[in-house]
Structure formats: C-alpha cells, structure tokens
Design a protein that fits this description.
The chain is an alpha+beta fold. The protein has two domains: 6-102, Phosphorylase Kinase, domain 1 (2-Layer Sandwich); 107-265, Aminoglycoside 3'-phosphotransferase, Chain: A, domain 2, CATH 3.90.1200.10. The protein has seven helices and 14 strands. The chain has helices spanning 6-21, 57-72, 116-131, 184-196, 205-216, 220-244, 249-265; strands spanning 27-30, 39-43, 48-54, 80-81, 90-92, 96-102, 107-108, 141-143, 152-155, 164-167, 170-173, 180-183, 197-198, 202-203. Strands 1, 2, 3, 4, 5 and 6 form a six-stranded antiparallel beta sheet that branches. A three-stranded antiparallel beta sheet has the order 7-10-11, with helices on one face. Strand 1 (27-30) and strand 2 form a beta hairpin. Helix 3 packs across helix 5 (205-216), helix 4 (184-196) crosses helix 6 (220-244) and helix 6 (220-244) packs antiparallel against helix 7 (249-265). The longest helix is centred in the last third of the chain and has 25 residues, at 220-244. The protein is globular, with a radius of gyration of 19 Å. The protein starts with 5 loop residues before the first helix and ends with a helix. The mean pLDDT is 93.
Length: 266
C-alpha cells in the first residue's frame, strides 16, 4: 500500500461515506495500531466504523468474500457494511479500494485476562473458524511449512493478542488481512506461540494444555496426530516472520527469545 496523504484520504473517506453509504462522519482518525497504515476509525457519535483501504482489487475481493463467509457461519468478526447500491467496496483515489467494516466495541485481549475461561473460549472460536472450509475458496496464499497433507483450512495467520477482542463475553477475531490457506495446525502453533511464550511473561504451559484440550475436545485421534506437529510449525513460523520482515532490534530479540522458549519447553 503506497503512502497516501492523510488529509486527502480523510477527505475522500468522508465524501464516499456520505455519498455512497449515507454515513455522516463526525471524526476520522488513522489507526496508530495498523502496521500497514491503511486503517481509519470513523466516529459518527453513536456508531463507529473501521475503514480499510486496499491497493489490489484481487485482495479486496478476497477479503470481502472471506468476511461475508465468516458472517454466514457466525464466526465472531467485524462485518462488511454495504453501500446504498449494495456494493461491498468502493474505489478511492483512483487506484485503491475502500471497505467499510463494523466496529467491535470491546476490549483487546491482555495477558492479565488470559484465564482458563478466556483460553477455552478462544480455542472454541478458532476451531469454528477452521471447521468452515476445507477448500481455498478465497484465493488466499497457500502456506505449507511442513510436508503435511492433513486438515486444511482458512488460517488467520496473525493471531496475536492485538487481533483478539472480548465483547459481551464473546471472543472476536479481527484483521484477516494476512489470512492464508494451509494446515490448521499452523494457526494453532501461531496462537500458542503468541499467547503462551514471550520475553516479558515467560512460558505458560498450563495455558497451552488448556487451549489444546479445548480445541480438540473429545477428538482424541486427531489430537494425537496433530499435537506433535505444533512445535515444529511454531518454530518454522518464527523463522518465516524473521526472514520476511525488517524488524527493529527489540522485536527481533523478542522473537528469538520466544523461539528459544518454545524449543526448550514445548
């Protein structure tokens, strides 16, 4: 996504929302938490919306199709807001595409809220996500770290605490922009890596056990088959992230420590 003039983008967002969606924006702010810089929060007094601006039409279509399917299967995520003409996205600034999403009015997951009840709820919601498809219906990039031909599914692929919200005692997954398709174990490994191993909080093996037990529930054979793969997927995912990004020293160190903790404890 190219760097765009923020004031120009805000003006265009305001215009499109009014003309195409009958939404009158009172305030538009660029999200400081978006690493891609393509997310804006729109405040309309009693309602908020999330605006995402995508560069590629293929990615835009993949995202709206994916979110529409998630809504259909009652996965707790933001919903795509349709325009007056029932369109799922609109062109903005000639070469970009604007999608309006509902705003999740909840709290971002924090480590001090990561109790047994929350861990179990996250496990159930992730299993629901993995259960809804076995085919790559959304033109998502295929990722395969291991030569594993097991259970294939949509992968969120970025399940950090920043992308998990709690609203009305329900778990919501947000930001599927990095979604992939591949072995469901990969998503399990990413979530476990992010939530239960860290430089600051150390290792939470009890949390890992609670998550795995709830995710697989009574499917003992599937659990027996897949859980030995979690460690290797977790380590390969960290290598993939380190190789594909130019992180600062602190972030790189945190990932290396996480890799060491997983190697020694998982």
């Amino acid at each position: 996504m190219p760097i765009l003039n923020s004031n120009q983008v805000k003006y265009e967002i305001e215009r499109i929302l009014k003309e195409k969606y009958n939404i009158i924006a009172k305030n538009i702010e660029k999200s400081a938490e978006s690493t891609d810089g393509n997310v804006y929060i729109v405040d309309c007094n009693d309602t908020k919306y999330v605006i995402k601006i995508y560069k590629e039409i293929s990615h835009t279509k993949s995202m709206v199709d994916l979110y529409r399917t998630l809504e259909l299967f009652k996965i707790n995520t933001p919903n795509v807001i349709y325009s007056k003409d029932k369109k799922e996205f609109e062109k903005i600034l000639d070469t970009n595409y604007l999608v309006v999403y509902s705003y999740i009015n909840g709290q971002q997951l924090e480590y001090d809220r990561l109790n047994r009840k929350i861990i179990m709820a996250i496990a159930r919601e992730l299993r629901k996500l993995h259960n809804i498809t076995e085919k790559n219906e959304f033109n998502l990039h295929k990722v395969q770290f291991l030569d594993e031909k097991g259970r294939q599914s949509i992968l969120h692929f970025d399940l950090t605490k920043n992308n998990i919200f709690i609203s009305n005692n329900k778990i919501y997954f947000i930001d599927f922009d990095d979604a992939k398709y591949g072995s469901a174990v990969c998503d399990i490994a990413i979530l476990i890596s992010n939530l239960f191993f860290s430089k600051t909080h150390g290792t939470d093996l009890e949390g890992v056990k609670i998550f795995i037990d709830e995710y697989y529930c009574n499917e003992h054979e599937l659990k027996k088959k897949e859980t030995p793969l979690i460690k290797e997927y977790a380590l390969q995912w960290i290598d993939y992230i380190l190789k594909g990004n130019n992180f600062d020293t602190s972030t790189t160190e945190s990932l290396e420590i996480r890799k060491k903790l997983i190697t020694e404890n998982l």
